[in-house]
Amino acid sequence: MTIHEALRQYWGYDSFRPQQEEIITSVLDGNDTLALLPTGGGKSLCYQLPAMVSEGVCLVVSPLVALMHDQVMHLRQRNIKAEFLVSGMNKHEMEVVLNNSVWGKVKLLYVSPERLQTRQFLEHYKQMRVSLIAVDEAHCISQWGYDFRPPYRHIAEIRAHQPKAPVVALTASATPRVMEDIRTQLAFRQGCQTFTRSFTRPNLSFLFYKSEDKMGRLLHVVRGVKGCSIIYVRNRRSTNDVARMLQANGVNATFYHAGLDTMERDRRQRMWMQSPDGVMVATNAFGMGIDRSDVRLVVHLDIPSSIEEYYQEAGRAGRDGKPSYAVMLYNHNDIDALDTVLQQSYPTPQQIKNVYRAACNYYQIPVGCGADESFDFDLQQFCHTYGLQPMMAYNAFRFLERDGLCSLPERNDLYSRLYIPLNKEQVYRFQVENHRLGDILTRVLRMYGGLFSDFVDIDEKRMARELKIGEKDVCNALKQMHKLEVVSYRPKATQPQILFLSPRMDVDSLDLSDSDYQQQKQWAIQRMEAMRSLVLNDKECRSVQIGRYFGEQRVEECRHCDVCRSKDKQKRDKKVVSASLRDRIRTLLLERPMLTIHQIMDCFSIEEKDELIAMLQQLTDDGFVRQTKAMEFFWRD
Ligand code: ADP
Ligand code: MG
Description:
Elements: H1 3-11, H2 20-28, E1 33-36, H3 45-53, E2 57-61, H4 65-77, E3 82-85, H5 91-102, E4 108-111, H6 119-127, E5 130-135, H7 155-159, E6 167-171, H8 176-185, E7 193-195, E8 204-210, H9 214-224, E9 228-232, H10 236-248, E10 253-256, H11 262-274, E11 279-282, E12 295-300, H12 307-314, E13 324-330, H13 332-345, H14 349-362, E14 374-376, H15 379-386, H16 390-402, E15 406-407, E16 416-419, H17 424-433, H18 435-447, E17 456-458, H19 460-467, H20 471-483, E18 488-490, E19 497-500, H21 515-536, H22 542-549, H23 562-591, H24 597-602, H25 609-621, E20 625-627, E21 633-635
Helix pairs in contact: 2-3, 5-6, 13-21, 14-16, 17-18, 19-20, 23-25
Bound molecules: adenosine-5'-diphosphate and magnesium ion.
Adenosine-5'-diphosphate binds next to loops.
């Protein structure tokens, strides 16, 4: 089967998108291949199609469980045998998938990077016939990238067991340094190929506005752009606040963040996809895998931590090539907030060590044991036991995961959530009418703030302690109130699991304190500084600045970002002034011919002197003005 036949047979597409054919051909020639394609550019096809025309199984490493799930479902709809392996599946389920892969019953096997290190996986992997190793979101392999994930480093190790299989690495954004790192870390062989794309987006206007009244300005911007938009904010609570403000002003807005349950997220996403003027106010959880090309406007109300993230998000506007806008609204507080966010995301080495020691003690894992073991995990209970602050602990776990020590499920699955869709009066009525539940609700309201505006993380165990009833009773009461539509209760995933990736280490021999950890923080600071300077540098075209960051030489000025616009305006203003200066000289000389330079200067203000002389010079050069032998000026029409 040729690749064109496969494209038609399995996907029903008539032609390749730009670069796809070249990338696919390179992969099928057996080259290690690095491909940069924009988001939505069709990266998946670059490994899925080679998988279909080759013998054996294509191993796909991908960082996000949700995306994996999506892709596998899509492939199955096309009658392609695809499977995935993620933490949370039990050993038996994984065994079945792995055996089928060995027996050649699977064409594409998606795995999360942590899985690559487990013995169960490796034993089967060695026996598979692997056609190709695909690494999606390949920038995750680089410490210089904005989304470093250390388990990605193990991909190179597994190459040794399948020396014939080429690697294809795919990403939407990587600086030259990150690209080089990807090739090195994946042990790219001689003759490897790299396909890059330009980062310029001629139809996208980058507009950075400093504003003390961001909401007013936002409303103005949203009303001024026809079509659908995405508005990015940093925290979950603001998504709701901003959406409400817009709704109150008659804008068709809704909000989205990872704390909403899956069904609700899907529903909102679908509504937005279908509405021609929909405005989605969201955290960065929104956008991955969203396939809408006619987004006309993306607004940032908070500054992202890196240009990569900013570009990724802003770049969701105008994928259909029509004129679109990426607007950044910021003020000085936002510039300062960048530092705070960075400090929170990087707990101190001592804090990380404490969390690791506590986790090992919690499950009574002796030093040298515990690899590959997983346990039920309750973050709140855990933090309560050791007096840890949950946000810090959560971030500390992220680092432990990076260092291949233990990994947690996504934050979303760790908590139960509660939201009260009623107003205070309705709640009051319920409390009066319903004694037992009303009493519980009263006390819940005392324990947690913000329940009326958004889903709040709650802890049933803690509630049980405070209310002095059983945990089961708490859950039942919440479920009952959920049925009565007094609250919206989303219990946490039944059994979130913590997975220990390597044997317990002695905390003192963990060298987080040293170079690596400090280095990572340093790099994060550099990325943040680059972002900060992009925001603050209003002297240079935004596209030129962004292009340079991604290593592009000689990007042309875009002529429509805020910087280019204001330069243009200055030029125009200047022209108006000088045009009038020219006219005034003309009028003067026509009325009173034969004036000396000093007589002319007396007719203009002192501030205009320089310009006046320049203008006289120019008019003389152009032949409009002549001088007599006595150095007197006259106008010559
Ligand atoms: P990326 O991973 O680069 O962001 P995807 O691989 O998810 O993009 O593809 C984005 C969309 O483009 C998908 O809906 C996919 O089906 C579609 N697509 C990819 N290649 C083609 C093609 N050659 N013709 C038409 N549609 C395509
Ligand atoms: Mg993709």
